[in-house]
Amino acid sequence: MFHVTSNLNKQVSSQFGKTGGWHVRYLFYGMDCTSNNSDSALKGGYSFEIWRPSFVSAFPRCLIGCCSISLLLLWWIMHHLFSIHGRHTIFIVLHEGRPVHYTVVLPKSFRFSFMGNADLQLGPSWTHPSHRRKGLLRSTVDSIRIHYRTSHCRLWWICRENNFTSNTAARRLGFTAQATGRKKRILCISIFVQQERIAKE
Are the CB atoms for 83 and 92 separated by under 8 Å? Predict the structure, then answer.
């Protein structure tokens, strides 16, 4: 379900407005896991790997060189210290044993307080330049939707309002714009706050 807490938004807006700390506008896209979107399987030569963190495994070693190690470690620390709604997961697409795409699936946390307890936020997402326009992102999102279908959760996709590529990708994947909002950094941690709900046409 879509959650907007107007009182919280007013409090946060008042607090951050004094310092002028709001960043650029973001669009919040949503999609139910149980939506009837067509399933897009990976083409020949590609395979999926689903990775989850543990106390002895902070990040998938195959992503070294594809993703910032500091970012991978930050997700692992956030998971063990702050997550109470499940573990983050990384869906990885391999080609000849090498990673060519990944999409991170994040559970609700204080960074995404607008989400329902069972909701999931997708991203960041990356595709190797040589393997773009091959439907890897669509296949990955379809696999994520099917993987979590029984939880009846909502998937969220957040991107900058002026990021044409990301906004176009979200709509093509079946996401619909739900709200606009801002991002604020507090102690080097980004927190997303929804401000205005987008009326359905």
Answer: no
Q: What is the DSSP letter of 68?
A: -
Domain locations in the chain? Answer: 22-158+175-197
pLDDT digits (tens, 9 = 90+) for 91-120: 999 999 899 999 999 888 777 778 888 899
Terminus-to-terminus CA distance in the chain, angstroms?
A: 18
Distance CA 135, CA 128 (A): 12
Q: For residue 96, what are its two tokens?
A: 């000849």
CB neighbours of 176 closer than 8 A, spacing ≥ 6? 29, 30, 31
CATH number, domain 22-158+175-197, options 3.40.50, 3.40.630, 3.90.530, 2.30.30:
3.40.630
- CA atoms of 122 and 115, how far apart (whole Å): 12
- Mapping DSSP to helix (H, G, I), strand (E, B) and coil, where does residue 7 land? helix
- What whole-number distance in Å separates Cα of residue 162 and Cα of residue 157? 14
Higher-pLDDT residue of 4 and 189 is 189
Identify the DSSP state of 175: -
How far is it, in rounded angstroms, from Cα 90 to Cα 172? 21
What are the residues whose beta carbons fall under 8 Å from the beta carbon of 171, sequence distance 6 or more?
Answer: 29
Q: How many CA atoms lie within 13 A of 146 on its CB side?
A: 12
Each residue of 41-60: pLDDT tens digit? 788 889 999 998 777 777 78
Give the span between the Cα atoms of 1 and 141, in whole angstroms: 19
